[in-house]
Amino acid sequence: MQNEILNNLTQPLQLEKLYRNRKNEFRQAFLELYPQLKGNLLADAWYERLSYEPDSIQWGKRNDIQLIISIVLISGILAKIPSFSNLNEEFFYPRNIGFIILSALTAFFLWTQEVPPTIKYLITGFTALSLIYINALPVLESDTLILACIHLPILLWGMLGVAFSGSSPLDKNKHLDFLRFNGETLVMTAILAIAAGIMSGVTIGLFELIGIKIEDFYFKNIVIFGFPSIPILGAYLTHNNPNLVNKVSPLVAKIFSPLVLLMLMIYLGAIFFTGKDPYHDREFLLLFNVLLIGVMALIFFSIAESYSKRKNIYGIAVLLLLSIFTIIVNGIALSAILFRISEWGITPNRLAVSGSNLLMLIHLLLVTFHLFKSISGRQPLSIVGKNMVKYIPVYLIWASIVVFVFPLFFE
Predict the structure, then answer these.
(1) Which residues contact 166 (CB under 8 A, 6 or more apart)?
(2) Would you say 196 and 173 are in contact if contact means Cβ atoms under 8 Å apart?
(3) What SS3 state is found at 5?
(4) Phi-psi bin for 291: left (phi > 0), alpha (psi -120 to 50), beta?
(5) Is the dihedral of CA 82, 153, 289, 320 positive or negative?
(6) Neighbours of 330 (CB within 10 A)
(7) Helix H or strand E segment including 286
(8) What 3-state class would DSSP assign to 53?
(9) What is the pTM of this model?
(10) Which DSSP symbol is given to 99?
(11) Which of 36, 79, 173, 203 is 20 to 30 Å apart from 324, CA to CA?
(12) Per-residue confidence in pLDDT tens, the chain, 411 aa
């Protein structure tokens, strides 16, 4: 990227195009290069532009504000469909919650990003067909239905990533930006959720003081209507204010990565000490897998946050150790699942979980290998991030198999 900046330094239009296509990579490369360019009028102007941090929150353009308000209102109305229809809540929410939130965000990025028309049609068509498909599955409860409802949001998340990438859907840096955007959105959403929870508690408490109980009304109308708006607004604020939580997110990663590593080490020792058996205890195995997914998410989020930063040996060492211990946890979980399959046969749940664990194990081994190369100085951390996101389509392919193929073969 630095060579591209130098080659286009006398061509302002080409420099602007380069920036718009790869903003984060451009910014990092330019700021590292700037000490050599100081005194160049165009370089000085770009430095001021890239270093500028607004003092107030940026709410976006008027059209964007109107669009996000419309999306929030529509999402709230969709969340209330069971209240004014004959649809059962247990039927509606597991099948459609991903569309209410993730597809709403996808629609925002399709509207605001420079997404090629072909990709827009593909995303819209896939979302529409998925909506029809998941709601057409039989009402009877089954393992494959539950698995489809769990894995479909992963596919919708993938569509959101494509929309976020805009005109560069194959750009690995865009994919890393998307992972970082997810982490920062989670932080912002958590802040908004805490604020909304405090406001709800105060509101209910104030009405209770004057003898009016509004808990049922408040939950059925205000909470359900407003619930989808929290992650949507969190994503919108993060998108328009990339500097708002970009100091908090790396701090979260730096604090929790070593703490989670310590917890994993103690937890693995405690398993052997207590004699807890994931091979025969189904609920314990389920919690084991939830822990695994959470730790993997932290590893990937930390790498996405750090890929454009300067090399930090301590941080990379923590991530490397965390990856190694997570591989051990994954190995235990996978062996327990395979043991259950050998003892009691294949079921949709066991096949889905074993497939997911195997994919995560392979992914973790690849990430660990590249982290080792990075800490030994053979490659920059940015290469770790790029190799990490190359594997994400594999998860999307597996999720699509679980959603669309499992119901045909196991029913």
Answers:
(1) 109, 113, 114, 115, 174
(2) no
(3) helix
(4) alpha
(5) negative
(6) 23
(7) helix 282-306
(8) coil
(9) 0.82
(10) I
(11) 173
(12) 677 787 777 777 778 777 766 666 677 677 777 777 787 878 878 777 777 665 556 666 788 889 999 999 999 999 999 988 888 888 899 999 999 999 999 999 998 888 889 999 999 999 999 999 999 988 767 888 999 999 999 999 999 999 998 777 777 778 888 888 888 898 889 999 999 999 999 999 989 888 888 988 898 889 999 999 999 999 998 888 777 766 676 777 778 888 888 888 888 788 777 766 677 666 777 777 787 888 888 888 787 766 555 556 777 888 889 889 888 888 888 888 888 888 888 888 889 989 998 998 999 999 899 888 888 877 777 778 888 888 899 999 999 999 999 988 876
Q: Which two tokens stand for residue 71?
A: 């999306």
User: Which of 220-245 are b and which e, b meaning 16 or more Cβ less than 10 Å from the residue's Cβ?
Assistant: eeeebbbbbbbbbbbbbbbbbbbebb
Are 113 and 166 in contact by the 8 Å Cβ rule? The answer is yes
Residue 376 CB partners (closer than 8 Å, separation 6+): none
Q: CB-hemisphere CA count at 13 Å for 11?
A: 11
